[in-house]
Write a structure and sequence with these properties.
Blueprint lengths: L10 H11 L8 E2 L6 E2 L10 E2 L2 E2 L6
Antiparallel strand pairs: 1-2, 3-4
Length: about 60
């Protein structure tokens, strides 16, 4: 059995809480230190295949 709330929350208050939880945000992007392409932080660059200035994945042209 769940606990009954002491006071009722209005629909506007309920929906405003939900709006902040499900808010979409743009992904963080940084420049690759080797080629300068935009990539997500702490991942291997898809353009040159490097991570932390070291080649991890060989990229074919």
């Amino acid at each position: 059995m769940s606990i009954c709330p002491k006071n009722k929350h209005s629909k506007a208050r309920r929906d405003s809480k939900r709006a902040t939880v499900f808010k979409m945000s743009a992904p963080a992007l940084v420049k690759c230190s080797k080629c300068g392409a935009l990539m997500r932080p702490h991942t291997v660059c898809k353009a040159c295949g490097s991570y932390n200035k070291r080649e991890i994945i060989p990229v074919e042209d």
